[in-house]
């Protein structure tokens, strides 16, 4: 029997992954500022610091572009490049990660379900529409449009208020320690850390559950809540 009355999910990296042509978007970013491309997307990703900053996607990517430009001895506006890349990305081009659709369906059999994403509705709604999440879930919260995002409690409070479920009876599933696991703890929920890499360290955080894939989500729903790997 599911011990949780509500199961909330993160979106990017947890339920879905991009399928769009990143190279085309990367080249379009350079075209938008009128300069010849240098480097490649993979090199840019390697120069970024950890997961995306939901409060400043432009600045997060601009840091990588600044480092990449230095390596290639090119004078460019990294903020303009970052803005161009974000504008060129097709946010609707996403697909479920393995096990995600089944995890949502299984959770919905015995619990209320919801989505809490740190992105704004203007960027995330196309993903929600592509994956038909508004029909699959009971509530959707776009924390990017709230005064406080994860890891603050407000987005979780909004979702649980809509579901009429107490935090102690809910669990949140996400792939970020500092936003998802920390946010769930702050709001009083149990947490599932969807580990992006089997060798990734928990960095001192203490998720209730640690999974390497949503294919193992049944473990969370069917057991008593003891921490598991």
TrEMBL record:
Pfam families per the UniProt record, alphabetical: Hydrolase
Superkingdom per UniProt: Archaea
Top enzyme class: hydrolase
InterPro entries, per database record: HAD-like_hydrolase, HAD-like_sf, HAD-SF_hydro_IA, HAD_sf
Gene Ontology biological-process annotations: small molecule metabolic process
Cofactor: Mg(2+)
Keyword Coiled coil belongs to the record: no
MF terms (GO), sorted A to Z: hydrolase activity
Record key words, sorted: Hydrolase, Magnesium
EC number, as in UniProt: 3.1.3.-
Annotated Gene3D superfamilies: HAD superfamily/HAD-like, Haloacid dehalogenase hydrolase-like domain
Family, per entry: Belongs to the HAD-like hydrolase superfamily.
NCBIfam families: HAD-SF-IA-v1 (TIGR01549)
Protein name: HAD family hydrolase
Species in which this protein is naturally found: Halobaculum halobium
């Amino acid at each position: 029997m599911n011990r949780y009355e509500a199961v909330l999910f993160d979106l990017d990296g947890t339920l879905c992954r991009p399928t769009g042509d990143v190279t085309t978007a990367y080249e379009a970013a350079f075209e938008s500022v009128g300069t010849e491309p240098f480097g490649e997307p993979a090199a840019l990703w390697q120069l970024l610091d950890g997961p995306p900053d939901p409060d400043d996607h432009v600045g997060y990517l601009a840091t990588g572009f600044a480092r990449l430009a230095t390596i290639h001895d090119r004078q460019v506006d990294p903020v303009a490049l970052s803005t161009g890349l974000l504008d060129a990305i097709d946010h609707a081009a996403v697909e479920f990660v393995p096990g995600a659709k089944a995890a949502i369906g299984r959770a919905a059999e015995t619990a209320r379900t919801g989505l809490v994403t740190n992105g704004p509705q203007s960027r995330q709604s196309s993903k929600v529409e592509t994956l038909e999440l508004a029909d699959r879930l009971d509530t959707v919260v776009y924390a990017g449009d709230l005064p406080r995002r994860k890891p603050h409690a407000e987005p979780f409070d909004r979702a649980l208020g809509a579901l009429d479920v107490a935090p102690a009876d809910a669990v949140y599933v996400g792939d970020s320690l500092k936003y998802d696991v920390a946010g769930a703890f702050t709001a009083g929920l149990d947490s599932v850390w969807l580990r992006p890499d089997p060798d990734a360290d928990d960095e001192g955080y203490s998720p209730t559950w640690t999974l390497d894939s949503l294919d193992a989500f049944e473990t969370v729903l069917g057991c008593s809540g003891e921490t598991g790997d």
